[in-house]
Specification:
heterodimer; A: about 475 residues; alpha/beta; Amidase signature (AS) enzymes; 8-stranded mixed sheet; 3-stranded mixed sheet; B: about 100 residues; mainly alpha; two-stranded antiparallel ribbon; 4 strands; about 40% helix
Chain lengths: ~475, ~100
C-alpha cells in the first residue's frame, strides 16, 4: 500500500476492483455505508473521468449532497431524497477525477459521537465490532480504516476527529471558512466544516489542496486568493517531499497536563509516552500550559449547537415532506411527520435548542454561551500566539462498547473536540498508538490557516509514530 | 409524569410542553425524554461556572468575526436560461421546450 498521491492513475484503475471489494466488505461487516454504488457504475465513472484524482474511490458522508445519489443524513426524514445538485466539494473532487463510491453511515443529521444514532443501524468499529467507531462521520472513518484511502466527512464538534481517533486514521477539521459548506445539509453552521479523512498524510495534502478552492456559493468562506495560494503551495510541497528531517528543533508545542489527566488512564499513558517522544526524539519544545475552564466548554458548545439545530431543522414540515395523498392539515401533519421521522436525539436537541433561544431564556443561556465562546477563542488564540501547536487528547477514553454511551452520556466524549469548533481553529487527529488493541489518537490545533502545517506534522510523524499501512483484519 | 416537576434549575414541565408545541413535535416526546432533557438542562446550567471569566465579553456569533458579504444580486447561469422562457409567450401562455 502506498499513497494515492504517489500512485499513477493506470495503477489506481488496476486496483479499483480490489479497493471496491474492501468497501463492499466494510458495508456488509461494519454497516459503513447507507448507499454503495454498484461496481459497474463505479468502473464506468472511473474510466471516463480525467484529472489528478482519476481512479480514486471517494466515500462521502451522507449529509453532503451528491447529484442523483441518495443523501439521507441517516434520517427517515430524508430516506428517499436524491439531491438535484452536487455540494461544491463534491463538484471540485469529481472535476479532479474522483469517483463517488457511495454515501457513508453517520449519526442522524450529524448529531452524535458514536455512530449509533442512525436510522439505518449503528456503524461498527473495524478494530472491534462490539465497539463504536465514533461519530458522527462514522462510516467515512471506517471506510478509510478498512483498507481504504480517503473519504469526506463533516465536523461540528469533533465528528471527523473522534471517529478518526477511534479507527486509527488521519482526520482534519479545516479552519472555519477555508472549505465550502455549500451542499452540506446544515446542523449548526457556525460550528461545522467539511474535511477529509485519509490513511497517508500525502493524500490528506492532495485532497486539501483541491478542497480549499474559493466558492462564491458559501458566503462564510474566507475570500483571500493569496492566502489560498499560499496554503496550496505548502500542501504541494508536502506532496512532492521525498525525505523528512530527523528532528524538529524549534517547533513549540503546548499541552495541558491538567486536561490530559481527565482522560482514562490507558489514554493518558499513550499520550504521555508520545509527549516524551516529541521532546526526546524529535527535539520539539514541549511545554505544559494552564488552560483554565477549557474542560467546561461542553456546556457552551451544546447550547450553541442545539440553538442552531432547532432553527435549521424547522424546515422539515408538512409543506415539503408529506405527500398530497396523506395530507390532512398542516399543523397535525407536521407534528406527526416530525414525531415519526426524527430520531430521539434529534428531537431532544430541537426541544432544548428552542428552549435556550426562546424569549426569557436567551440571555440566560444562548447569549452567555456566545460570551463563553469569545473567552475560549481568546484563550486558545493567546496560547497559539506563543506556540506552533496545541496538543490535546481527542477522546477521554478508548472507543466505548455499543450501547455503553447513549444519549447525554455520549456528550462527554466530545470534551476535547468541541474547542476548535467554538474557536474556528483547524485541528488534526493523528493516531499515536494502541491500547489493548484499540487505536489511540491525539489532536493538534494550530493557528488559523495553518492547515498545511498540521498536515506536515502528520507527514513527519508518519512511519515513526504510526504505521499508515496498518489495517484491521 | 409529575406535573410541574422542574427540569434542571429552571425549566418546569409545562414550559417544556409549550416548547414541544412550538417545535412542532408531539407532547409524548417530552414524557419519553424527560430524564435525558433534565440532564441536558444540568449541562446547560454549567455555563454559570464561566460567570467571572466571560461576563464582560461581547458575544461571539461567528468563529472568525466575519461580516457576511452577500453575492452581487445578478442572475446568471441556470437561472438566466430559465428566465429566457419568460420572454417566450404566445397567446398569454409560456412556451417551454418540447419534452
Amino acid at each position: 500500500m502506498k499513497p494515492l498521491a504517489e500512485t499513477p492513475a493506470e495503477e489506481r484503475l488496476k486496483q479499483l476492483k480490489t479497493v471496491y471489494s474492501r468497501q463492499r466488505e466494510a458495508a456488509e461487516r461494519f454497516n459503513a455505508y447507507i448507499t454503495l454504488r454498484s461496481l459497474e457504475e463505479v468502473e464506468e465513472d472511473a474510466e471516463s473521468s480525467e484529472g489528478p484524482l482519476k481512479g480514486v474511490l471517494l466515500p462521502i458522508k451522507d449529509n453532503i449532497s451528491t447529484r442523483g445519489v441518495k443523501t439521507t443524513c441517516a434520517s427517515r426524514m430524508l430516506a428517499g431524497y436524491s439531491p438535484p445538485y452536487d455540494a461544491s466539494v463534491v463538484k471540485l473532487l469529481k472535476k479532479a477525477g474522483a469517483t463517488v463510491v457511495g454515501k457513508t453511515n453517520m449519526d442522524e443529521f450529524a448529531m452524535g459521537s458514536t455512530g449509533e444514532n442512525s436510522a439505518f443501524g449503528p456503524t461498527r468499529n473495524p478494530w472491534d465490532v462490539d465497539r463504536v467507531p465514533g461519530g458522527s462521520s462514522s462510516g467515512s472513518a471506517v471506510a478509510v480504516a478498512y483498507h481504504g484511502y480517503v473519504s469526506l466527512g463533516s465536523d461540528t464538534g469533533g465528528s471527523i476527529r473522534l471517529p478518526a481517533c477511534y479507527c486509527g486514521v488521519l482526520g482534519l477539521k479545516p479552519t472555519y471558512g477555508l472549505v465550502s459548506r455549500f451542499g452540506l445539509i446544515p446542523y449548526a453552521e457556525s460550528l461545522e466544516q467539511i474535511g477529509p479523512f485519509s490513511r497517508f498524510s500525502k493524500d490528506l495534502a492532495m485532497l486539501m489542496k483541491l478542497l480549499i478552492e474559493y466558492d462564491e456559493m458559501d458566503m462564510t468562506m474566507t475570500p483571500s486568493t493569496s492566502l489560498r495560494n499560499s496554503i496550496a503551495s505548502r500542501l504541494e510541497a508536502i506532496i512532492k517531499s521525498t525525505g523528512k528531517p530527523a528532528v524538529v528543533n524549534g517547533v513549540k508545542i503546548a499541552y495541558s497536563s491538567k486536561l490530559i489527566s481527565l482522560a482514562d488512564s490507558r489514554v493518558q499513558r499513550v499520550i504521555e509516552n508520545f509527549i516524551s517522544y516529541l521532546r526526546d526524539e524529535m527535539h520539539a519544545e514541549v511545554s505544559d500550559v494552564d488552560l483554565p475552564m477549557l474542560d467546561k466548554s461542553l456546556s457552551a458548545y451544546y447550547i450553541i449547537a442545539m440553538v442552531e439545530a432547532s432553527s435549521n431543522l424547522a424546515r422539515y414540515d408538512a409543506t415539503y415532506y408529506i405527500t398530497r395523498e396523506t395530507y390532512t392539515s398542516y399543523w397535525q401533519d407536521t407534528i406527526r411527520l416530525r414525531s415519526e421521522k426524527f430520531g430521539d436525539e434529534v428531537k431532544r436537541r430541537i426541544i432544548m435548542g428552542s428552549f435556550a433561544s426562546s424569549a426569557g431564556y436567551m440571555g440566560r443561556y444562548y447569549l452567555k454561551a456566545l460570551k463563553v465562546r469569545r473567552f475560549i477563542k481568546n484563550l486558545v488564540s493567546e496560547v497559539l500566539s506563543r506556540f506552533d501547536f496545541l496538543l490535546m487528547p481527542v477522546s477521554p477514553s478508548p472507543p466505548p462498547k455499543l450501547g455503553e454511551a447513549v444519549g447525554v452520556d455520549a456528550y462527554a466524549l466530545d470534551i476535547y473536540t468541541v474547542v476548535p469548533n467554538l474557536t474556528g481553529h483547524p485541528a488534526l487527529a493523528i493516531p499515536i498508538g494502541f491500547s489493548s488493541g484499540l487505536p489511540v489518537g491525539v489532536q493538534f490545533i494550530s493557528d488559523y490557516y495553518k492547515d498545511a502545517e498540521l498536515v506536515y506534522l502528520a507527514y513527519l510523524l508518519e512511519d515513526r509514530v504510526y504505521d499508515p499501512r496498518k489495517a484491521p483484519g | 409524569m409529575t406535573r410541574g416537576r422542574p427540569l434542571g434549575k429552571e425549566l418546569p414541565v409545562e414550559e417544556v410542553k409549550r416548547l414541544v408545541r412550538e417545535t412542532m413535535l408531539s407532547e409524548e416526546e417530552v414524557v419519553k425524554n424527560l430524564d435525558q432533557l433534565s440532564r441536558i438542562m444540568e449541562l446547560f446550567d454549567e455555563i454559570d461556572s464561566f460567570e467571572e471569566y466571560a461576563k464582560s465579553l461581547e458575544p461571539l456569533y461567528h468563529p472568525l468575526d466575519q461580516r457576511g458579504e452577500p453575492r452581487v444580486d445578478e442572475s446568471g447561469g441556470e437561472r438566466a436560461r430559465l428566465e429566457e422562457f419568460v420572454k417566450n409567450v404566445r397567446d398569454g401562455f409560456l412556451r417551454t421546450p418540447r419534452l
